[in-house]
Amino acid sequence: MTETLHRIVLASRPEHKPGLDNFRMEESALPEPAAGQFLARTLWLSLDPYMRGRMSAARSYAKPVEVGATMEGACVAEVVTSRHPGFAAGDIVLAQLGWASHGISDGAGVRKIDPAAAPVTTALGVLGMPGLTAWVGLNDIAGARAGETIVVSAATGAVGSLVGQLARRKGMRVIGIAGGAEKCAYAVAELGYDICLDHHGADARRLGAQIAEAAPNGVDAYFENVGGTVLEAVLPAMNTHGRIALCGMIAWYSGAPAALPAPAIWGAILRQRLRVQGFIIFDHWNRLPAFLAEVAPLVKDGSIRYRETVAEGLDAAPAAFLRLLEGGNFGKQLVRVG
Amino acid sequence: MTETLHRIVLASRPEHKPGLDNFRMEESALPEPAAGQFLARTLWLSLDPYMRGRMSAARSYAKPVEVGATMEGACVAEVVTSRHPGFAAGDIVLAQLGWASHGISDGAGVRKIDPAAAPVTTALGVLGMPGLTAWVGLNDIAGARAGETIVVSAATGAVGSLVGQLARRKGMRVIGIAGGAEKCAYAVAELGYDICLDHHGADARRLGAQIAEAAPNGVDAYFENVGGTVLEAVLPAMNTHGRIALCGMIAWYSGAPAALPAPAIWGAILRQRLRVQGFIIFDHWNRLPAFLAEVAPLVKDGSIRYRETVAEGLDAAPAAFLRLLEGGNFGKQLVRVG
């Protein structure tokens, strides 16, 4: 085991698109836990689109990462040394250690993981924050119901792949939108989407026509993960009294263009009597037990599928994160750190 | 009583801003009611912003008025001749006779009005469609609650003036936005707004600063009647989990400019976790009895105030309607026809 702490810090804030030069690896001596703390070594780091927001100083729903500070992130980690009564060496935990090889924790917000119940990486994906996001957005925000038609963007991503499968299990018509033929084929063959449209190279008008064709009864619910052209293509297809669960807009995090002027957006919401609701999963942790009670058994018995893209080694995290922002991952993006 | 039917038809569709040349007066012989019908003469015609949408062929929530057809509209009318068992000569009714001196009806959608209960014009205003719009938007759509802060645009209009008074009665902090010093003074002195901001000549930035100052605890609910600069000024002041009831966007009906790009709009809804809901009162007629049960007594005992602007004669309707679109009315805009 290394005696050095490796961590990736925010070297500078991106002007528009982030690049590798916005990150820097730093090394320091391994810290010692004080009384009431434990030291853990990171096994897996989760990479998620929300981290893009943390890199910018602009107003967002959480404080930005300071320049020079460790990039934030959730990890599956193993306790190495504990001076905390609730944790022992060898425990596997879910903890916010950030983009780092090790971390000190006082146990706040840390959850122990049972490696026998499910692969530990699922705590970062299908049974973790992305999974809860999918379940809350589908049920509590979009109010999705059997017999309705739903569109899911980023259909094979960590969030979207579960939205699609849960919607299908509800008895909905499920239309996915994903980037590339391989993802679309996977969405239909493995995740059970009725159809999946490839947005690569499509403009809003053509994509809109494809959506209209794929949804002969219109779209009742839209789980929005990406923004940009996809959002603008789905909007006109929404049925009267449709609901849009606004979860992310990764396409706009780095300044993608937008065609629709403000009056057209508000006008569509008014005329089509839509309910558009933004949500951030950090407001909904209280739903975790209900989510796990429903979904964990489905993951265990194989009814719910998930897919992971693994980058090897902490130093691979920045490039993997940049690929994630471009849709280059397939399913949940992880970094194998330890 | 005249033996001629006068009606105002849509002469042409407006390119951008409507003008007098989009309307034309036509005359014809008074029609005779068939069996099961009655003939009524219009006493009062209601002018409402939704009529702007009916003049255009663009997709909207209702069919457009055809070129050459009578402009649509709700009227308070008196039955002249009846061959309908449910209506007798002399009955006062609320009916969709349009911009016309007389009309034939089979009774569908017609409501009898008791002139002893309240002035008959209230059936077109505070106790009619605009009043129900205010009550549904405040309670069912915006989910307004005691102790919260609400912003109401078009604060002294037919809808806004009731929203403000009902919100005040709920125990909310009520911030109005209206066009001109006279309307703002009336909003505070007569309608009980805590403060009313004049949007005339204000840009979104200055108006935004005034809103922020007027709402030290932020804005929890926004009753949106106008769109344009006002909407763009309120958006940044919305609290986390705020609600926007999207009722109208009169400023954009005729092509007012919009500054905010699409990513900023969707981004605000996402980051501030807003719930934005468009609604059209025609979906909510089932709420009329509950609305009248609560509000009619308050109008009768003078607790709820209302104001009317009256144009004299059917031929004054087009100019009065164009003034309404510019905010030139004060309270409910009516035309005294009969």
Could you explain how this protein is built, in words?
- Two copies of one chain form a homodimer.
- Chain A is an alpha/beta fold.
- Chain A contains ten helices and 15 strands.
- The first copy, chain A, has helices spanning 50-54, 129-141, 160-170, 181-189, 204-214, 228-234, 250-253, 262-271, 288-300, 317-325, and strands at 4-10, 23-29, 38-46, 75-82, 92-95, 102-105, 111-112, 149-153, 173-178, 195-198, 219-224, 238-246, 275-278, 308-312, 332-336.
- In chain A, strands 3, 4, 5, 6, 7, 14 and 15 form a seven-stranded mixed beta sheet that branches. A six-stranded parallel beta sheet of chain A has the order 10-9-8-11-12-13, sandwiched between helices. In chain A, strands 1-2 form a two-stranded antiparallel ribbon.
- In chain A, strand 14 (308-312), helix 10 and strand 15 (332-336) form a beta-alpha-beta unit.
- Chain A starts with a strand and ends with a strand.
- The mean pLDDT of chain A is 93.
- Chains A and B meet through strand 12, helix 8 and strand 13 of A and strand 12, helix 8 and strand 13 of B.
CATH topology description of the largest domain in chain A: Rossmann fold
The separation of the N and C termini of chain A measures: 9 Å
CATH class of the largest domain in chain A: Alpha Beta
Which protein chains are joined by the largest interface, and how many residues does each one contribute? A-B, 36 and 36 residues
Approximately how much beta-strand content do the residues of chain A carry?
25-35%
Assign the CATH architecture of the largest domain in chain A. Answer: 3-Layer(aba) Sandwich
Q: What Rg of chain A do the Cα atoms give?
A: 20 Å
Specify the CATH homologous superfamily of the largest domain in chain A: NAD(P)-binding Rossmann-like Domain
